[in-house]
Amino acid sequence: MAVTSAPIAAAGRQGQSWSHVIAFVVMVGFFAIAPLFIYPLFLMKALCFALFACAFNLLLGYVGLLSFGHALYFGWASYLSAYAAKAWGFPPEFAILTGAATAAVLGLIAGSIAIRRQGIYFAMITLALAQMMYFFAVQAPFTGGEDGIQSVPRGWLFGLFDLRDQMTMYIAVLTIFLACFLLIYRIINSPFGEVLKAIRENEQRAISLGYKTDRYKLMAFVLSATFAGVAGATKAIVFQLASLTDVDWPMSGEVVLMALVGGLGTVFGPVAGAFIVVAMQNYLAQVGQWVLVIQGIIFVLCVLLFRRGVVGELAHYLRIRL
Amino acid sequence: MSETILATENLTKEFAGFVAVANVNLRVERGTIHALIGPNGAGKTTCFNLLTKFLQPTQGRIVFKGRDITALAPADVAQLGIVRSFQISAVFPHLTVLENVRIALQRRRGASFDFWRSKRVLDQFNERALKLVADVGLSDVVHVAAVELPYGRKRALEIATTLALDPEMLLLDEPTAGMGHEDVARIAALIKSVSANRTILMVEHNLSVVENLCQRITVLTRGRVLTEGDYQTVSNNPEVREAYMGTGHA
Q1: pLDDT at B200
Q2: Of the four listed, A295, A313, B84, B144, which is most buried by Cβ atoms within 10 Å?
Q3: A181 lies in which domain range?
Q4: Number of domains within chain A
Q5: Residue A5 forms part of a structural domain
Q6: Domains of chain B (ranges plus CATH)?
């Protein structure tokens, strides 16, 4: 836990929420004009991963719990969302809710087991459970194994909006992202969030003040898994595909990288981190396997030199909270 | 006056064969300041950990206000009204002084699982928090992160946080350890003032603090109760002198 609380020291003091408001306006402004000059499908992918990273950051940045199995919730939510839309003919909103509910249930089960342990043991248990479910995804008939679930219909949102239109889909994804982003922000800044931060800072002390910290940790775990599920379920609808990639362990590692590059324990860091990582993968795709090497180098540089991450360093330099 | 608030019966804790606490029968009377003293390694902190259930006793019972609390979880013990401080200063480092105290005050709302509500609902506790912060002399650093405070002031903050719960019984683990002279006097005065309608059990090495504050003293050595009594009785006991100074012929 000491590992995570050091970079969080960047967080400033009270009465600076205006910096959050300005940053939020800038972010929304960027997303509003971005489709004019950036390929919308890329933006939607980045938004899904941004939400995934925000969900992950809720757990690592604000409770100090390093889950190394978040692909479980992201990937399985995308399977259930895709299956519901394709096999059961669910409209997209219900398909996404099905995926999120799946992630919540999986989060409740995995969380109940994992929160009994601390630190590296916690990370290992989350990884082990995620791997179990990965092999289940490989074997189970309805996931389509290596093929995944393909040509998932995007459908009509609320029966009104045709999501086959790229811009309509983009607006829907952006709305989902912003709603979840604001909800996560509220969670961080709620009475519940205050207890989470206290647990991150000093769990023993929180217990001695009478807080049953396991329950708070489990609640945070389920919330984080659910938002990761929304991200995965939305991605399945956007790309009309659910595949093994999203449930495999490198996906769990990628979300750690996104949160770390952007800045752990910052509100906007995971969004920036997700965009940086997704952009690298997209625009450096022609260099092939070298993307992984570049990612590795960035990871090392972040840990060695920019422990606060991009947004964390910026906030530190400007002496504000972001 | 002589009502027992906290008692232990044959409290024992073994760590892989090493007996840290052996058959301790402690009796703390309501409304007193009771000191637990003894040389390093005597089992004082282990005792505290057992009483607050941070450790599970190997044998024995703990009774608080006539109720057996031996099987409870640490958070339950805290909710019953036994709140402890720690030997190493236990603050929430990256929260401000005000936020530190408010976390404790927030407990009065019951469980805080309302993640959909703004933390502004906690502003109702600000006034009380500021009062507690002022009581320990930290008014000038209300919005400073706890990590930036010097050691003595961290301890003061820890005590303010503990008092915020308004516990019936306080367990203070070396409240003045590592403090400067003025801080010691301030904390001793604070302990005295908050002892008015509660019971305090404290581990303390500063014997002048013990002499001034504590009505009753229990001396532990090697996990056992050596003797018990008021300061005069205890300090005149040759066995205590030997255990403490290592000089039986002093």
Answers
A1: 93
A2: B84
A3: 16-247
A4: 1
A5: no
A6: 4-245 (3.40.50.300)
User: Is A284 among the domain residues?
Assistant: no
Strands B169-173 and B82-84, by their bridges, are parallel
Q: Which residues of A touch B116 (CB under 8 A)?
A: 183, 186-187, 190
Predicted local confidence at residue B235, as pLDDT: 82
Is A69 among the domain residues? yes
Q: Please judge whether B96 and A13 are an interchain contact, meaning their C-beta atoms are less than 8 angstroms apart.
A: yes
For β-strands B4-15 and B27-29, DSSP reports them as: antiparallel
B206-223 pLDDT per residue, tens: 888 888 889 999 999 888
Region B9-35: what's the mean pLDDT?
A: 90
Query: Is there a contact between B122 and A191 if contact means CB atoms under 8 Å apart?
Result: yes
Alpha carbon of B192 to those of B46, B188, B213: distances in Å? 25, 6, 7
A191/B121 touch (CB, cutoff 8 Å), yes or no: yes
ipTM of the modeled complex: 0.85
Residue A211 pLDDT greater than 60, yes or no: yes
pLDDT higher than threshold 70 for residue A243 = yes
Quote the CA–CA distance of B164 and B157 in Å, as a whole number. Answer: 10
**For residue A16, what pLDDT is reported?**
58
Q: Give chain B's mean pLDDT.
A: 87
Instruction: Mutate one of B72, B76, B105, B115 to test the A interface: name it (highest A CB count within 10 A).
Output: B115
- How close B109 gets to chain A, by Cα (Å)? 10
* A209:B161 CB<8 A: yes
- B78–A209: do the CB atoms touch at under 8 Å? yes
**Is A53 domain-assigned?**
yes
| Pairs of residues, one from chain A and one from chain B, whose beta carbons lie less than 8 Å apart | 115
Distance from the Cα of A219 to chain B's closest Cα (Å) equals 8
Cα A76 to Cα A102: distance, rounded to the nearest angstrom: 7
Contact criterion met (CB below 8 Å) for A158 and A93: yes
Tell me how close the Cα of B247 comes to any Cα of chain A, in angstroms: 38
- Taking an 8 Å cut-off on Cβ atoms, the answer to whether B95 and A210 are in contact is no
Do A227 and A51 form a contact (C-beta atoms < 8 A)? yes
- Residues B33 and B202 sit within 8 Å (Cβ to Cβ): yes
Mean pLDDT of chain A: 90
pLDDT per residue over B41-88, tens digit each? 888 889 999 999 999 999 999 999 989 999 999 999 999 999 988 877
